[in-house]
Amino acid sequence: MKFQLERTHIPRLVTDVYLLGPGLFWILALNYSLTGFEGAMLLWLNNRVMTLIETGIASSNPDGPAILRAVLYRIAAVAAIAVWRWFSSRTQPILKGRAKLYFQERLMNAHLSQDMSHYREASSSIDASPMNGWYALLNLMSSLDVIFSTVSSLMLLANLVLKPTASGDSVSLLSVFTGTDTLMKNSTGNATTDAGSSGELASGGAASMANSLIVIALCVTWPLVSRMLRHELDDTTYIAHVNNKHYLRAESFHGLAISSSYKREVISGTMSEYIRREHEKARALLGPFSDDYPFEAVRQQSNPFGAIVLGVLDDLPLIYYAISAVVYRQSGLSLSSLAMLHETLGITRNTLERVLMERTSFRENLKQIRSVYRDLEVQDKAGAESVEGDEGAQKATGSDTSQSKGVGIELRNVTFRYPSSADDASSSSAALRDVTFTLPPSSLVVIVGANGSGKSSLVNLLCNLHRPTAGTILFDGVDPHATDISTGARFWTTEDLQKATTLLTQSHSLFPAFTILENIAIGDPEFCLDCAEGGAASRTHLVERVHEAARLGGALEFIRKREKGFDEVIHPVTTSFSSNYSLAEGPLKEMYDKLEAWKDISGGEQQRLAAARTFMRLMNPRTRLVVVDEPSSAMDPLGEFELFEQLRAMRQGKTMVFVTHRFGHLTKYADVILCLKSGEFVESGTHQELMAKGGEYSKLYAVQARAFTDPATEVDSGHVAGTLNDSADEP
């Protein structure tokens, strides 16, 4: 069943590539078809030239015009093949480029259609590359080459085995060894043969055909036996790993010595001598070993007898001819024909070997095609689910989601496990366990907790990057993931919620090949698309808004100091390479080092650019939920304070959720503080309420404040907490 499903993708692949360029596709197919005939055709022309030359030498009367024609035919064939190869080599890259861009776009859309939960699931992970489809098609085309090569080789072999002699008498090469050549000559030279002679002629012809079949059978024997004696893993699904502890230890110390990632620790820890000695010890304990890959090790024979058998089988046709020559003692065999026949037999054996190998190759090719279209079906499935969900939501209510206040959020008994640990039902594997709380619309929320408390996991759920394993998350009273959306005054779809959400984290990336302006502008992609369609005036509006976002994010000053300002590309796409592994010092190396080099930028500057991108999105009136997760880890205290002040200034009509380790100057403005510990929600309230409780929040706050407290006045954590509570309004 699985094989049949894979085969159904072949017409789809062929159709997809054909539609990219019908003419180019037929040129490609014709090229692979003609390649199959090429070898046999050239060999046949060679044989024709050699036979005419040998006949002329033997008769001392060479046929000059015939030899010249044969040579010209050979030259014309070579020239035609060269022209065709040149032509196809210029057209094939065009179709290849179209196919790459086509599958690249399809796979890109498949990636973009997945949310974080589906993206991490092994069953729906997208691992095909844009070139997989093209190479799968080439493998299919190579099957045409194998088919036509096999047919042409067998036809040439039959032609050589049954061809007339150079003198024109109807005598096959095999008839020379069977004694039927005299009979055949008599049949052509004397039209009055008796019935007995006719019977002998028929008998001789049958013997010649039988011997022809023997030669072909001997030719087929070698690839068949070779396939049986060879041990392969091509049809086997397997895994392999190294279980020799001494080998693993030697590799480990080798990695420590050469990797730049460990260089600092190795030098500062004076580990060099230890690494040398331990590597030497592991190598000594390892002893003799094979470093072959599993598929290479399996091919090795336990004894040489198989190789001996294959060597003898390879020469069986020649041995057969030698025995026949001795037994029948005939001298009519042409040496040039025998040499040509021997070469043809070798080509035929190799072709048959390719046929047997093509079975495995074809099966692997089917798997490759299936992987491409399986990944493309991810997009189709996600798109169908999205349309179905949107239609259900529209059916429930047709109201607009744009509101003048932030999103109200409610978590009901939410448990969350990442897809990688979804099979582990133990409570310890859950990042969040049975979390329940409510966030009022337009509130300012601060989430606190130690490392591993579940803060980042909660952020992923609030931003709709993951779905809860159990429980429900309601946005304005509606679960966007519910299969049956109840009617109501308002609704959220997943796409609507993501468009209304702004996320600022410490790990925002600068996109490759983007200018600084584009890296900021993409924070509001809808606005960018609108401006792209609006001409010069819209472009000016976009630039003005990007400059304002950079100012709010604290990035405007350092951007203006850079060489190209907003037009600078920080991370260009790397396409350059050198012909040598290591270029020698000189002008060429200097030029190479400058090509596509990444520009220097500090961690704080990168976070300011990320903040500017966030403010670009915040300017969109559609934003109603802002989630800020440790955005200032690389900023100085002043830069962090200014960032939070700018964010607070734009909180009108938005629910803002902050996650930060340094939460001292935020908590006094918080409407709600949520405290997490080990994946569980432990307490919530305002700063004053939680400090009065003296619980987990009070401990975390006291630990941070202790660095700014005079040790002489610090009596205990409760005293510190009380002191901090009294001065909580200080920034």
TrEMBL record:
Residues 383-404 are annotated as: Disordered. The keyword ATP-binding applies. Keywords: ATP-binding, Membrane, Nucleotide-binding, Transmembrane, Transmembrane helix. SMART domains: AAA (SM00382). This is ABC transporter domain-containing protein. Pfam families: ABC_tran. It comes from the Eukaryota. Residues 409-703 form the ABC transporter domain. Gene3D superfamilies: P-loop containing nucleotide triphosphate hydrolases (3.40.50.300). The chain crosses the membrane at residues 23-45, 66-87. Coiled coil: none annotated. One of its GO terms (molecular function) is ATPase-coupled lipid transmembrane transporter activity.
